[in-house]
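Shipment paperwork, digital attachment
Item: protein structure file
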Amino acid sequence: MIACISACSSVFARLGKQSLIRRAFTLVELLVVIAIIGVLIALLLPAVQAAREAARRMQCSNNIKQWALALHNHHDTHGDLPAGTNRFIAGGKVSGWGGAVRDRWATTWFLFPFIEQQARYEQGCAALIAAADTGTLPNGTVIGALHPFSAHDFISGTITSLACPSSDNTNAPAGNQTRNSYRTCWGDWVVQNTGGNDVTVSGITSKFSLARGVFWYGLRRNFASISDGTSNTIAVSEGNVGAAQNFDLALKANTIFVPDLNANAAADPNCTFVKVAEPGSRTTYRSDILTAQGTIAKGFRVADGTFTHSGFNTVIPPNGPSCQPSLGSEVQWGYITASSNHTGGVNAGYMDGSARFISDTIDCGDLKVAQTTAMLSRPSIYGVWGALGTCSSGESVTLP
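Attachment content:
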C-alpha cells in the first residue's frame, strides 16, 4: 500500500512538472504576443485620432452654421447684412463708408449680438461713444477713434464659438484681440486696392462693381441681391490661425508676401504650390521667396474688416497658398483662400444657413487665365469654387 502511494505521488509530481513546463511561455511566444499587441495599438490609435478629428470637424461645422444663422438674424433685425468692412458710429450703428481706420470694423464684430456676445457689443458701443471725436460724416454724424486693429477689452480673450477646435493658436494671450478661425467670402475677384483707408463715400460707390461675393468694402447687401440662390452662395469659411503676426512659414495659417505678384495673371505664375511652397510640401512656404517683411498671420484681428485680415476669395483651392504683394497698409488685395487642419478640405457656411464640407480637390477652373474687368459681368472662370463664391453672376452650381 505504501509502495503504491509512493508510486502514485511520483507519477503526479512528474505530471505536475510537465504541466508547468507546458504552461510557460517561450521567448519566441512572448515576442509574438508583444508584436501582436503593438500592431493592434498601431491600428487603434489612428482610429481614435480620426474619431476625435471627426468630432472637432463637427463642432467647427456647428460654429460655422451658427455664424451663418447670425447673418439671418442680423438681416431680420436691420433689414440687411453687415458689410465686409463697416463704419462704426455712435450707438453702434453702421452708415456707409468713410475715410479712416475707424471704418474698418469687420463683419464679425457686427454679428456679436447674434452669437451670444451682446455684452461685449454693448461695451464696445459705449467705448466708441465715449471716444475722442476725430471726424464728421456729411450728414453731421461725429465718429469716434477706437481702431479695430488695436486691442480692446471688448474684443480680448478667447471666444469659443470663433475658434475651430482643429485650428492652431486659437487661445489669445492676455491683452490681445480674440483669435478668429472664420472669414467672410468676398467672391472670386482678386480683390484690388480700392484706395484703402482713404476711399470717400462717393469713391467707394463706383467700386461696388468689383463686388462679386456677398461681402465687400462698405457694401451692405440684402437677400434679394443674392440672385444665384442662397444655397449656392458661400458666406463664410475657415482660416487656420497663425502662430505669430510675422515670419511664420506655415502655409495654411499665413499669407506670404510675393513682391512680383500680378493681380491680373490669376494664380500663375507666382501664387501656386510649385512657386511658393517647399518642394513636395503643402504645408510650408519656401523661405527663399520671403521679403524682409515675411508673412502675416491669419486670424489675429477679429475686429479688423480689411480683406487681408478677415476675408477670402474663391480662386486658389482650399488649403492652398495665400499671397499678397506687400505689407503696406494700403495693400488690400491678394489671393487669400480658406484653410483648415481638417483632413481634405474646409467647412463652409452658406447664405441659406447651412454648413457643408468643401474638398481641397474642388474644381477651380483654369488658374492660368488672366483676370480682366470684362469678367465682372460674366459667370466665374474659377469652376465650381469660383461660382460658389459669387452671389449674382448667373451660376447655379452645387457641390458634386
